[in-house]
Write a structure and sequence with these properties.
- It is a single chain.
- With 311 residues, this protein is mainly alpha-helical.
- The protein folds into two domains: 9-106, Tyrosine recombinase, N-terminal domain (DNA polymerase, domain 1), CATH 1.10.150.130; 122-303, hpI Integrase, Chain A (Orthogonal Bundle), CATH 1.10.443.
- It has helices spanning 9-20, 26-46, 59-71, 76-97, 102-106, 122-136, 141-156, 160-164, 194-211, 232-245, 255-266, 271-278, 283-304, and strands at 171-172, 177-181, 187-191.
- A three-stranded antiparallel β-sheet has the order 1-2-3, with no helix packed on it.
- β2 (177-181) and β3 form a beta hairpin.
- α7 packs antiparallel against α9 (194-211) and α11 packs across α13.
């Protein structure tokens, strides 16, 4: 049977609710729409083209859908996200349309594999910044911009999307702070370190020529030679180029945010303070970095303690 081409009215209404009442980001809306479209397509095929309603969904339908996701090789985290979207949709149905399906509430999320965030060691951070500073010493605008981005990632723990969306009016270099618009459109103010502030000043001076070009985005902090705001893939590519230069295999752009949190906690920072700096809604999300620190301490203990070494 061909996949459904029209989104059911209830799903459209739910997505509009997320956009207007909950002010969710376009990325989040796209993810919810994609997950629910998969679910609706499965229900269409399950009913063989017959008319069905969301109130009819039972535990067999939920199990069948999750089983199909597994057969398609979908990662457990992706399957868990999809089920989370369905449960959110049904919570909304319960509140706004009095549709309560126990099978959805009882559905269990797939057990997730524990995955500690990748972060750089202190010596890798030193090598990374030494390399970026050497490139920027030539006053090449691209290198000055890349150093400023790297400094801001590590200084303030920003997400890629947060750094990309920064405008000049959100940056306060006199007060050494920046106003960030994070997930859920929540604002937070985070400090900007001294070195990051210096790198940003140098870049802002250098960007003036590009920002003056016709059609340039004059408010965006991080722009390319055309004057347009950098695309996410461009930022990733520039960061990975710096990682590759020092042999930091397996690191991603997000690794600088992970390094920011891990190194703060290693130095004794308060967990709730780190939560605020990262913009996490839940403390449990921040706590994963304490596991990273403990694992690192175990490694140090195993190498250094006379009776801690494994035979």
């Amino acid at each position: 049977m061909a996949a459904r081409t029209l989104t059911p009215p209830r799903v459209r209404e739910f997505l509009e609710h997320l956009e207007k009442a909950r002010d969710r980001s376009p990325h989040t809306l796209s993810a919810y729409a994609r997950d629910l479209e998969q679910f609706v397509d499965f229900l269409d095929r399950r009913h063989g083209g017959r008319t069905w309603s969301f109130a009819e969904v039972d535990r067999f339908a939920i199990r069948g859908f999750l089983g199909e996701l597994e057969q398609r090789g979908l990662a457990r985290r992706s399957a868990a996200r999809t089920l989370s979207a369905i449960r959110s949709f049904y919570r909304w149905l319960h509140v706004h349309h009095d549709i309560d399906v126990a099978a959805v509430r009882a559905a269990k999320l797939p057990r997730l594999e524990k995955r500690l965030p990748t972060h750089l060691l202190a010596e890798q951070v030193a090598a990374l910044f030494a390399h970026a500073e050497t490139l920027a010493a030539t006053d090449d605008p691209d290198a000055l911009r890349d150093l400023a981005m790297l400094e801001l990632f590590y200084s303030s723990g920003l997400r890629l999307s947060e750094l990309r969306e920064l405008d000049l009016d959100r940056l306060d270099l006199l007060g050494d702070q920046v106003k960030v618009l994070g997930k859920g459109r929540k604002e937070r103010i985070v400090p900007v370190g001294t070195r990051a502030s210096l790198a940003l000043r140098r870049w802002i001076t250098a960007r003036a020529a590009w920002a003056a070009r016709e059609g340039a985005d004059r408010q965006a902090i991080f722009i390319g030679r055309t004057g347009r705001r950098l695309a996410p893939v461009t930022i990733q590519r520039r960061m990975h180029r710096l990682y590759d230069a020092i042999g930091a295999d397996g690191m991603r752009t997000h690794s600088m945010r992970h390094s920011f949190a891990t190194h703060l906690l290693d130095a004794g920072a308060d967990l709730r303070a780190v939560q605020e700096l990262l913009g996490h809604a839940s403390l449990s999300t921040t706590q994963i970095y304490t596991h990273t620190s403990v694992e690192r301490l175990k490694e140090v203990y195993g190498r250094a303690h006379p009776r801690g070494k494994k035979k």
